[in-house]
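FORM 12-B: Structure-to-Sequence Request
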């Protein structure tokens, strides 16, 4: 099979994790970018990247790359592409543009010029234009412009890859599934150790950890992909990938527990748990995080801490102080990874973080911090 030039999008701070995932799938010429990983691979690698990558938001295939001096130049060169290789007349399409350029300063105008180029290409040949559908298009195109360099890409994923399909009930600000999967891998979760989330919300961290522990590819949750509507879609190859993923699932028993003070969120978690057959080991409890305890001598805590700015600063500070105290007294021998975008409140944990990893959530700068918990002082615990 011929090689494709591909780009996998991700969150800032998760590029190295994604690169490792892609390498394991057979990707070549891997190059780390900001919020993305560039790589080469054939159709099989592209299918697998969509089906198995946990931290990829989308997998893009390069169509063409050229230089444009103006919007007219952009239109002309885009219209020279044989768009009938990627789109049928009865299919709908959409265009999304990202621009970092003085010449192409308005991303919407750049996407409009490429849309016109595609539509006029078909009009000149068939006498009619394909329809645009911005909500649920059959085919999604992307335009990336940096200064005068233009890259036209085909979105092979369709709907964003973080939409696994298991989570149909959430709170106001649920953690993105890809971000949760990345944090779990950064925490080096071992499926043989207990995992606790004492602020579990909709349960995203625990669901993703369970999928990792059992080696369940995200694609096994029965979502569809953009490439399945392409003219050259190889159904036999894709079915082979699905069967291989099914045979790779591990039938292991795991210890995963989630707690939240909000009864509604616990009910949401239990509802979401029933959406897939893999989550039977996860347990959810309505409990104030300050009251959560364990009988285990060691294990892992991962939590996306509340950082709602609507709460008074004094309340947030006291909450974070209580979190630090609770971890110290109730979880000796554990290591904890706490994620938050409230940098000031994190200072009130009262424990020295061993590691600080900068990440982003919802466009806001955040931090993932590791704390090693000891009985008494660190000196006495040795």
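FORM 12-B RESPONSE
SEQUENCE OUT:
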């Amino acid at each position: 099979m011929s090689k494709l030039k591909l780009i996998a999008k991700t969150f800032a701070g998760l590029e190295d994790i994604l690169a490792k995932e892609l390498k394991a799938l057979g990707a070549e010429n891997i190059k780390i970018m900001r919020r993305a990983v560039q790589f080469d691979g054939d159709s099989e690698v592209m299918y697998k990247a969509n089906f198995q990558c946990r931290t990829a938001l989308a997998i893009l295939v390069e169509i063409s790359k050229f230089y444009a001096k103006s919007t007219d130049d952009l239109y002309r060169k885009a219209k020279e592409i044989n768009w009938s290789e990627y789109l049928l007349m009865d299919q709908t399409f959409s265009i999304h543009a990202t621009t970092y350029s003085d010449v192409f300063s308005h991303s919407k105008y750049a996407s409009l010029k490429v849309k016109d180029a595609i539509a006029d290409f078909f009009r000149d040949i068939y006498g009619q234009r394909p329809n645009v559908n911005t909500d649920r298009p059959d085919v999604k195109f992307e335009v990336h412009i940096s200064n005068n360099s233009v890259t036209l890409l085909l979105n092979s994923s369709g709907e964003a890859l973080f939409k696994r399909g298991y989570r149909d009930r959430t709170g106001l600000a649920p953690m993105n599934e890809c971000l949760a999967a990345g944090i779990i891998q950064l925490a080096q979760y071992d499926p043989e150790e207990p995992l606790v989330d004492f602020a579990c919300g909709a349960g995203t961290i625990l669901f993703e950890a369970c999928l990792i522990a059992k080696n369940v590819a995200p694609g096994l949750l029965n979502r569809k992909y953009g490439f399945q509507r392409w003219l050259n879609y190889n159904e036999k190859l894709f079915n082979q990938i699905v069967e291989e993923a099914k045979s790779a699932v591990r039938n292991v028993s795991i210890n995963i527990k989630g707690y939240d003070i909000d009864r509604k969120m616990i009910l949401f978690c239990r509802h979401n748990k029933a959406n897939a057959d893999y989550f039977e080991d996860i347990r959810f409890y309505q409990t104030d995080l300050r009251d959560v305890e364990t009988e285990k001598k060691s294990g892992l805590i991962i939590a996306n801490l509340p950082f709602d700015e609507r709460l008074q600063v004094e309340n947030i500070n006291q909450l974070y102080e209580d979190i630090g105290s609770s971890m110290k007294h109730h979880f000796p021998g554990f290591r904890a990874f706490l994620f938050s975008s409230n940098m000031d409140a994190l200072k009130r944990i009262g424990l020295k973080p061993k590691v600080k990893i900068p990440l982003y959530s919802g466009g806001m700068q955040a931090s993932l911090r590791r704390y090693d918990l000891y009985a008494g002082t660190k000196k006495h615990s040795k």
